[in-house]
Specification:
With about 325 residues, this protein is an alpha+beta fold. The protein has eight helices and four strands. About 60% of the residues lie in helices and about 10% in strands. Strand 3, helix 8 and strand 4 form a beta-alpha-beta unit.
């Protein structure tokens, strides 16, 4: 047997099906990030000042938590900006994948925040803290307004961009924490039941975790080049295999280039390569419109040449 395996040599007809009509590309959330960072920085300063004057450890701790959220917003914004950087000879995809890392880090930050909330809540079950004054309730109410307003700025992009979803979850989580503080504060002031404070914190932690788990799972998946959520790999393969003249599909890979862009490579075995250019353009168009895959690279192969194996190489 004389196996002369040439490997995956894409030297002929390595056509890229890039239509480059990236209306599904990353939307511009610069204004949302700027407003969110400014508002939350002001709120952190407000909490710190009132925490010092009211001798409230809860406010000071929440100020530290909100400061971490400001840093999370900065990280997400940085990722959004880097995703727009032009690719270079060394970084041929640019910095798109940084948005995936930012989403992963934000998910981890949220898990740390959840851990801190649970730790504090369990401690307060054993050693209930005295009810804090009306100042804490009013400051928390301001927090609801600021965090909810910031979350709304990112609401429209939370389903299409994992990085934006991370920013949205941070702000929504903070709004929920503030809601818990206000409700618990009001109820405790009327009933004197101090255990309502840690109980509300645990409920909030569970709600935040429910949203964070999906963010963590998807960001880890994208980091490992799994098929992005919302794309059915079996349906993509079925579509490619159903094309006229296509005898088989192999080496199909689908992965996320960023939190908003998906890429695909595939080898199609065809019986005739006549009219190949037109076929490739149509494939790129269909992949983009039907499956939201904006970067498709297709290699056409005949049965006589499949991945570098010629007839006289096969025994």
């Amino acid at each position: 047997m004389n196996h002369r395996h040439t490997g995956h040599e894409h030297m002929d007809h390595h056509h890229s099906g890039h239509g480059h009509s990236h209306h599904h590309g990353p939307a511009n959330y610069n204004r949302a990030f700027l407003i969110g960072i400014v508002l939350n920085t002001v709120f952190v300063a407000l909490e710190a000042v009132y925490g010092i004057f009211s001798h409230s450890l809860a406010l000071l701790a929440d100020a530290g938590h909100n400061l971490s959220d400001v840093l999370a917003l900065v990280l997400a914004w940085t990722a959004s900006l880097l995703a727009r950087r032009i690719p270079t000879e060394r970084r041929t995809y640019g910095y798109r994948r940084f948005s995936i890392l930012a989403a992963l880090f934000n998910a981890l930050f949220l898990l740390v925040a959840i851990g801190a909330i649970v730790w504090e809540a369990v401690g307060r079950f054993h050693d209930p803290a005295p009810v804090t004054g009306q100042t804490v309730i009013w400051v928390a109410a301001v927090g609801i307004a600021i965090n909810a307003a910031t979350a709304i700025l990112f609401m429209s992009g939370r389903k299409g961009d994992l990085n934006i979803r991370g920013a949205f979850l941070h702000m929504a989580a903070d709004a929920l924490v503030s809601v818990g503080v206000v409700i618990a504060g009001i109820l405790i002031s009327y009933t004197g039941w101090l255990w309502l404070d840690p109980l509300s914190s645990l409920i909030v932690a569970v709600v935040i975790f429910a949203g964070t788990w999906g963010l963590l799972k998807e960001s880890v998946g994208l980091s490992l080049d799994t098929v992005p959520g919302g794309i059915d790999a079996a349906a993509v393969k079925a579509y490619l295999g159903s094309l006229p003249g296509v005898l088989g599909v192999h080496d199909l890979h689908i992965w996320g280039m960023s939190t908003t862009e998906a890429a695909l490579t595939a080898h199609l075995v065809v019986n005739d390569r006549t009219g190949e250019d037109g076929m490739l353009r149509e494939i790129a168009k269909e992949l983009h419109e039907r499956f939201d895959i904006g970067h498709a690279t297709i290699q056409m192969e005949t049965e006589a040449y499949i991945c570098g194996l010629f007839p006289d190489d096969i025994v």
